Amino acid sequence: MSINKWDGRRDKLTRAPTCNAPIVIAKGGFSGLFPSSGSYAYQTALHTSLPNVVLWCDVQLTKDGVGICVPNILLNNCTSIPYVYPKFQKSYLVNGVLLKGWFSKDFTFTQLQKVPLTQGIYSRTPQFDNVEAINAVSDVTQLKPPGLWLNIQNLTFIKTFASGILVPKNYIWPVSPTVYLESPTSIVKDAHKAGLEIYASDFANDVVFAYNYSYDPVAEYLSFVDNPGFSVDGVLTDFPVTASEAIENPLVITHNGASGMYPGCTDLAYKQAVDDKVDIIDCNVQITSDKVPICLSSIDLIQGTTVTQVPPFTSRTSTIPQIQDTAGIFTFNLTWEEIQKLRPEISNPELEYRLVRNPAYKNAGSFWKLSDFLAFAKDKPIKGVMLIIENAIYLTKKLVKNNPNKCLHHPLNVVLSAKTRLQEKRKLARVDHKSSSTEVNIVCPY
Length: 446
Description:
Elements: E1 5-7, E2 12-14, E3 23-27, H1 39-48, E4 54-61, E5 67-69, H2 81-84, E6 90-94, E7 97-101, H3 109-112, E8 135-136, H4 137-141, E9 147-152, E10 164-168, H5 169-172, H6 187-193, E11 197-203, H7 217-225, E12 234-237, H8 240-247, H9 267-275, E13 280-287, E14 293-295, H10 311-314, H11 336-339, E15 368-369, H12 370-377, E16 384-389, H13 392-401, H14 411-426, E17 430-435
Parallel strand pairs: 3-4, 3-12, 4-9, 10-11, 11-12, 13-16, 16-17
Antiparallel strand pairs: 1-2, 4-5, 5-8, 6-7, 13-14, 14-15
């Protein structure tokens, strides 16, 4: 029977049937950075991952029967062996397929000690190529890892593990041609029903993600180990530090709400963030021309809204060097009513690499006043809110200059008093604010 159990608020993830936290398996060590199965990769994985991280070794056999850790049966795919032994290329039938290259079975372990490891995935850095030699399984055991997973396949393949199975993550949660998640399969539930543990493979930070994850590998791990429907017993990853961070208990602070899923600082972004069980939600406080504090990712409406598509507002473009070098349409030049006529626009910070965020919802959601944000946060299961005030010096001079008798209603005072009221009502663990000019003093003439 599958047991889904919370042990406190994300203190530990215990959704697997064993009620143990999911295991992180470091595939060839930290192979996303270093050549797979080298000492650097294994040692870095041990130092940067969970205390119980399991090291993965793809075992091949040498001519003299020594088990070595290399990620591919063809040594030319993960070492510099063609340059060390150029005349030793051979062909073998492996699982019904004729393979040509350099094989460990044709060399003694002593001979292979002259062969340096290289990064087998060419999109990753070659900075650490040709630095260290091939490890024997006994070399890895001397590192005393909490666990060592020996993967024996191909020439000496032993049928599937008696206690569990390892499957590619896309077998568990398929991805559509449009790069969105489809419905998960039943394989995890079926495995657990049969009494088998199930581990998901093919996790890496530098591959294409479903839009549902907003290019956040931590979110991907959590969808496999911490969702109401199922949980795998562990993950096989090239980046064990990321998986460890997902399974640990970090303090999660949003950036304009769930701004990778919806346009930032909108109702949908904040609701999604709370549904995702974040700890703190944030509001970048901006001020309208009629002195209404609102939540918006930037003081420049060109960033995060469709203001440039509304002709009446394009004439309000101005350049203010104290704020930014480029021209903009600023929140304090429009009223709250006018801003509500705009549509939000999702941020795409990596557009130059053709990485776009959730295009199906690029203009979804509604803008919120600060009071809407605080009212929403008041009864939500979060640890606190963060109010961010930017360009405080400029706003102080601009908005108080021509109205000195209303200093008590200055936007910065409004924000800070709102913070106090929220603390009193909610007794939150933390309600933070930060300003780009923390030494601003607001002086009110009598």
